[in-house]
Amino acid sequence: GESVGLHLPTLSVQEGDNSIINCAYSNSASDYFIWYKQESGKGPQFIIDIRSNMDKRQGQRVTVLLNKTVKHLSLQIAATQPGDSAVYFCAEKDNQGGKLIFGQGTELSVKP
Amino acid sequence: DAMVIQNPRYQVTQFGKPVTLSCSQTLNHNVMYWYQQKSSQAPKLLFHYYDKDFNNEADTPDNFQSRRPNTSFCFLDIRSPGLGDTAMYLCATSSTGSYGYTFGSGTRLTVV
Known about the structure:
A: six-stranded mixed β-sheet, B: mainly beta
């Protein structure tokens, strides 16, 4: 079936460096893509989203890039901080029923 | 203030003993979702409600049931929990201002 997956299960960066978390998706018909941050023992927290008619969207310290040609999504975090340590999930929204389908997650560790 | 509230935060139940998890939302949205998230995995959709219309995912076991007595509340009933049902259970509703969902903090269920 259709699924969203991530390339790397873990990513370790130095505090202050930029982080890039990648995601591959398979459903070319999906309209919306969302990044979530999940800290240990908590529910997923919305970070940023992008619609399929865009290729870039910026937020506060975060940027999402969408490459529909290769079905690739990335999340860039500028000046990574210890508080950014968490698991990051990409998700795509099923444009038929509006259901959110999650990828497998990348665990980001920030070294002080 | 939390918009999706789940109770309890932690639940331990015995193998085969029915258990109910609860969720409430203050957004007055039509849709509510239940996800299961096992350790180190992505959240997996179990079912969702659109108003009173119940929509089960094809691979959700019959052991899992749900009730939605009104717009604000939704319950997840596990009729005969097995050890494999140990997981975090996440409730969500649609978001205002983004394409994703707003999640609760989850209930961590342990079956012993």
